[in-house]
Design brief:
The protein has 235 residues and is of the alpha/beta class. It has two domains: 115 residues, 3-Layer(aba) Sandwich (Rossmann fold); 113 residues, Rossmann fold. It is built from nine helices and eleven strands. The strands form two sheets. It has a six-stranded mixed beta sheet with strand order 3-8-7-4-5-6, sandwiched between helices. A five-stranded parallel beta sheet has the order 2-1-9-10-11, with helices on both faces. Helix 2 runs parallel beside helix 3 and helix 4 packs parallel to helix 5.
């Protein structure tokens, strides 16, 4: 089977390895390109910890600051692994999504211990700041990178759809899903989707995916890479 991976290149290496271990051929066509925001200032005075909602945030911080002493609160296990590789030692994983991270911080941290600093992209899904402020936390959001949408599908991707060579497409975020749907429509691939399964990390990811006539849309039991791969294994 051949599977299309739509994640940014920086986020897809481990996923590609796991797919290939399963004997699956991988076609990579990132729907977002990650670009660092140069000359961003990071003020950590009075902070009690850092919030990371993606591995891209960890990598952007790693390339901008040498500070590794703060506790870090990560949206999921993959982001936590990236934080560990970057040299952080006090790492907490919410093992979920932005809402899960907000609830985890509220349950395990105290507002009076200082503000939270969210290392983010220029565009974010969910309202992490709103949820934490409603619980009494002070939070500052510092964008260190931007995710730029692709402007066209790759030729290999278009050919794979038209020739019926794909078994599945994996979608990890609403933004990558929406970008793919827009570009697939522009390329006239609607009918070609009818023989392909779409595997989505969450219901929020599945919503834009549903604009195309897939053979099946499958949503992972949990918003994790492991759960999405388990769904793919089940066929």
């Amino acid at each position: 089977m051949r599977v299309l991976v739509t994640r940014p290149k920086e986020d897809s290496a481990a996923l590609q390895r796991e797919l290939r271990r399963r004997g699956i051929e991988v076609l990579l066509d990132p729907m977002l390109v990650i670009r660092r925001m140069e000359d961003a200032a990071i003020d950590l005075d009075g902070a009690q910890g850092l919030l990371f909602t993606s591995s891209n945030g960890v990598r952007a911080f790693e390339n901008t600051s040498g500070e590794r002493g703060f506790p870090v609160w990560c949206v999921g296990d993959e982001t936590a692994r990236t934080a560990q590789a970057a040299g952080f030692t006090d790492i907490h994983s919410a093992a979920g999504n932005v809402d899960t991270l907000a609830n985890y911080v509220i349950a395990h941290a105290r507002p009076e211990n200082g503000r939270m600093v969210h290392i983010a992209g220029s565009v974010n899904a969910g309202d992490l700041a709103g949820a934490l402020r409603a619980a009494g936390f002070s939070i500052d959001r510092i964008p260190l990178y931007e995710a730029v949408p692709a402007t066209a599908l790759g030729e290999d991707t278009k050919n794979a759809f038209k020739q019926g060579l794909l078994g599945a497409v994996l979608f990890f975020s609403p933004r990558t899903a929406a970008t793919f749907v827009s570009l697939a429509k522009s390329a006239g691939l609607e009918n070609s989707c009818q023989t392909v399964n779409a595997y989505c990390l969450s219901p929020a990811v599945a919503r834009p995916v549903g604009e195309l006539p897939w053979r099946r849309i499958v949503i992972a039991a949990d918003p994790t890479r492991a759960a999405l791969l388990a769904a793919l294994d089940q066929g």
